[in-house]
């Protein structure tokens, strides 16, 4: 028998196959784009007034949804990871205490001046007085005949036991009460002060923390509790004391500060928009159009993307979705993208060799349309990227 040496099997390269597939697919995509944008151009050329009127009318009707607009940030729900450990902890906490909804917490921090102590009678009384005043804040009620409630009525847990023990020790110096850190003793019962006292040094206390936990009966009651919290915070901002500094902490205050910070950026966004339109105006003057034509072209360049942003916010508002700070800046981002696309169209229009208006518009849309579509698509995907995280 004759032995023959084994020959390697021929390897078929995948590159030619991929190249063939690419060469076949690309012309099909370009042909589809050409048919679509030529169709759009033919509709615009056939009935320009109808297309313009319909577009503006639809934009106006959809934008009417902004009458339902409300600005609201929720840093827990809006800026938390979907699988955040805190969500599981909240669920376990609710299950353990058999709560139907998550409790709402507010904290009051009392900080004395350097060299002083929160356990001094005058300083402690000031904080105690403000706690009583804050918990006595009346919850607004739409029904005048209904019983009036205060924050205290919805409080299910607080640091009242700790503060009562401190108050008893300061005023009466009972042998049954010993205030110490980290554990105090009240009638032979140990009371942890780890979450109440901060900055204990040489017998003085720098900070006291008072925790309040509320269990609202409904989302409407929760909104009213947050409103009372905000009123308490605003009162503390106006309050001045040489002995004590009080700071209120809660979700509503964080949300409010986020909103205030967002609103404060509006002047910068407006200045940026004006500068962008100024640059666009200077660029449009290169095409040797009349001043009125240049201004009109500039207004249309800015109005189209702005209408898109306003309509998007109107749709969210109509559906009851509150506008947060991230959504608020979206129209300005869309304006930048829209002006960039407008420059492509304007440049193609004024450099076109077509004489007939219909052919010129058709050529412009066929050449620029895919670029505008791809830009819009990639921006939509970029904004939705967090949804697939």
UniProtKB/TrEMBL annotation:
Subcellular location: Membrane
Coiled coil location: none
Protein name as catalogued: SSD domain-containing protein
Keyword Methyltransferase in record: no
Membrane topology: Multi-pass membrane protein
GO BP annotations listed: endocytosis; molting cycle, collagen and cuticulin-based cuticle
Membrane-spanning residues: 266-285, 297-315, 321-339
InterPro entries assigned to the protein according to its UniProt record, in alphabetical order: Patched_domain-protein (IPR051697), PTHD_SSD (IPR003392), SSD (IPR000731)
Family classification: Belongs to the patched family.
Domain SSD as annotated: residue spans: 265-389
Keywords on record: Glycoprotein, Membrane, Transmembrane, Transmembrane helix
GO cellular component: cytoplasmic vesicle membrane; plasma membrane
């Amino acid at each position: 028998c004759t032995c023959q040496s084994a020959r390697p099997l021929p390897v078929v390269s995948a590159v030619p196959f991929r190249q063939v597939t690419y060469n076949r697919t690309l012309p099909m995509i370009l042909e589809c784009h050409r048919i679509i944008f030529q169709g759009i151009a033919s509709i615009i050329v056939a009935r320009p007034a109808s297309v313009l009127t319909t577009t503006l009318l639809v934009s106006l009707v959809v934008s009417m949804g902004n009458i339902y607009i409300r600005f609201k940030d929720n840093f827990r729900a809006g800026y938390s990871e979907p699988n955040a450990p805190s969500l599981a902890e909240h669920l376990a906490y609710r299950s353990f205490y058999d709560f139907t909804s998550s409790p709402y917490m507010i904290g009051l921090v009392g900080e004395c001046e350097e060299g002083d102590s929160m356990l001094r009678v005058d300083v402690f009384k000031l904080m105690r007085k403000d706690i009583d005043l804050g918990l006595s804040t009346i919850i607004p009620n739409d029904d005048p005949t209904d019983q009036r409630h205060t924050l205290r009525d919805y409080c299910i847990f607080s640091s009242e036991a700790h503060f009562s023990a401190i108050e008893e020790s300061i005023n009466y110096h009972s042998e049954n009460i010993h205030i110490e850190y980290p554990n105090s003793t009240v009638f032979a019962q140990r009371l942890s002060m780890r979450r109440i006292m901060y900055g204990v040094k040489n017998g003085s206390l720098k900070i006291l923390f008072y925790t309040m936990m509320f269990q609202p009966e409904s989302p409407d009651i929760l909104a009213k509790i947050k409103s009372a919290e905000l009123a308490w915070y605003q009162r503390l901002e106006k309050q001045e004391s040489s002995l004590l500094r009080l700071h209120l902490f809660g979700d509503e205050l964080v949300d409010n500060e986020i909103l205030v910070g967002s609103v404060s950026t509006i002047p910068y966004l407006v200045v940026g928009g004006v500068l962008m339109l100024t640059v666009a105006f200077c660029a449009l003057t290169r095409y040797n159009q009349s001043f009125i034509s240049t201004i009109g072209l500039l207004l249309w360049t800015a109005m189209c993307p702005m209408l898109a942003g306003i309509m998007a916010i109107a749709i969210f508002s109509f559906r009851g979705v509150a506008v947060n700070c991230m959504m608020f800046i979206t129209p300005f981002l869309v304006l930048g993208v829209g002006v960039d696309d407008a420059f492509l169209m304007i440049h193609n229009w004024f450099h076109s060799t077509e004489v007939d208006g219909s052919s010129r518009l058709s050529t412009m849309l066929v050449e620029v349309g895919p670029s505008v579509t791809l830009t819009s698509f990639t921006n939509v995907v970029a904004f939705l990227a967090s949804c697939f995280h």
